């Protein structure tokens, strides 16, 4: 079974049947992007192009800051599901897939 369930109408996300509290719109969109492509590695540039204004005027490290906050909200509920692929980017690993 899937560990993460997303309701795109209400823009709510659940992990292990618990609501992930206080997701910002950008955090929700990040999580949705990852969940729709499990195990796919996204680099910062891909995430910026997909989820931020194009062209994006700012530091690409803004992606890291959003992922850090998203991870903190996930860790309250259970094991981390957003993995860092060193030197490349980030990916979603659903523990329910093992």
From TrEMBL:
Gene3D superfamilies: Winged helix-like DNA-binding domain superfamily/Winged helix DNA-binding domain
GO MF entry, a single one: transcription cis-regulatory region binding
InterPro entries referenced in this protein's UniProt entry, alphabetically: OmpR/PhoB-type_DNA-bd (IPR001867), Sig_transdc_resp-reg_C-effctor (IPR016032), WalR-like (IPR039420), WH-like_DNA-bd_sf (IPR036388)
Gene Ontology biological process terms from the UniProt entry: regulation of DNA-templated transcription
Positions of the OmpR/PhoB-type domain: 1-94
DNA-binding region: 1-94
Alphabetical UniProt keywords: Activator, DNA-binding, Phosphoprotein, Transcription, Transcription regulation, Two-component regulatory system
Statement: the UniProt record of this protein carries the keyword Ribonucleoprotein: no
Thylakoid is among the record's keywords: no
One Gene Ontology cellular component: protein-DNA complex
Protein name as catalogued: Winged helix-turn-helix transcriptional regulator
Source organism of the structure: Abiotrophia defectiva (Streptococcus defectivus)
